[in-house]
Amino acid sequence: MKKVYRTTIAKDGTTGAKRIGVNWLSISEIYHAMVTMRWPKFFLMLLIPFFLLTFFFTLLNAITGFEHFHGLTSTQSIGKFWEIFLFNAQTLTTVGGAGITPVGFTNNVILTIESMFAMLGAAVITGLLYVRFSRPSSGIIYSEKALISPYRGGKALMFRIANKKKNEVVELHTALFTIINDLATNKRDAKILKVERDYLPFLAHSFTVVHPLTEESPLFNFDWSDNDKTQYEIGVWFNAIDRVTGQNVFSGHTYFMHDIIHGAKFTSCMEVDENGLFLIHLDKVGNYEMI
Fold first, then answer.
1. Among residues 134, 152, 172, which one ends one of the domains?
2. Which segments within 49-168 are labelled E, that is strand?
3. Is 231 part of any domain?
4. Contact, 69 vs 91, CB < 8 A?
5. pLDDT, tens digit, for every residue of 252-285?
6. 181 forms bridges with which residues in the sheet?
7. How many CB atoms lie within 10 A of CB 36?
8. What is the DSSP code string of 91-105?
9. Residue 170 lies inside a defined structural domain of this protein
């Protein structure tokens, strides 16, 4: 049986809690969902109402009668239906009427209402696309595993990050923490973990975040075993500034208990070419070897 881990924050750094009682149909929630969802789902959420509206207006036109449209070329009812369907689809995209003209008061009222939907839809979609394209991203990637490695006569928890974008992120601030879940009592205990360097002027290449496991550390002599009594997560948040846009960027990541490797160290992911230029292999950021 696959073991289920209780997660406070998801693997990508977003909160992993499911909220009960939220009105998901509110304008603010719909807007947030449309801005943050993945591109394939975003386009799907645009196409579904588009085709539903097109089909709805086509049905209205069919009820009023296809004989009230000039420019139809098909002689069959099904052919006329699809011609009107394409007419409505082009109307909703503000392109035009495909050479078809409605005749009569009722059909022109329907077309007027449809045109209003078209204008509002175009404005909303344009705004959503602008927000999605203008949202800054940090471009920070993480090593797949976090390591417990020898460090200055003791041990340290460490993981590696790198900048995958061509532009730099500057003023990088780091917050590292752990959340320990007591499975017996359903209680959670959150503790801040001090890192060796919680500030970087810029991140151009790779960097290893180090939390020394000293006596002051909440993880000193911690039971790292994967057991049925406690589960833990190591979470990290980065706050930085995109050097190109000047906007704040955020990035988060979580290492679960099965992501911690003991007695290992990272191998080099950088080299210098013949011109003295640093080369970073992004596919090797998470590479490590056992000690």
1. 134
2. 69-70, 101-102, 140-142, 146-151, 154-163
3. yes
4. no
5. 899 988 899 999 999 999 888 888 888 889 999 9
6. 188, 231
7. 12
8. HHTTS--TT-EE-SH
9. yes
> Which residues span the domain enclosing 61?
27-134
Count of structural domains, the chain: 2
Per-residue pLDDT reduced to its tens digit, 66-106: 888 888 888 888 998 999 999 999 888 877 766 788 888 99
Residues 253 and 227: beta-carbon distance below 8 Å: no
Domain edge (last residue) among 85, 109, 134: 134
Task: Return the CATH number at 99.
Answer: 1.10.287.70
Q: Locate tokens 């035009």: which residue?
A: 96
How many CA atoms lie within 13 Å of 273's alpha carbon, on the beta-carbon side?
6
Q: Which of these, 236, 288, 232, lies nearest to 262 by C-alpha position? A: 288
Please check whether residues 130 and 179 belong to one and the same domain: no
| Residue 58, in any domain of the structure | yes
DSSP, collapsed to helix, strand or coil, labels residue 183 as coil
pTM: 0.74
What are the respective helix, strand and coil percentages of the chain, to the nearest 5? Answer: 30, 35, 35
- C-alpha to C-alpha distance for 91 and 102, rounded to whole angstroms: 12
- pLDDT bucket at 117, cuts 50 / 70 / 90: very high
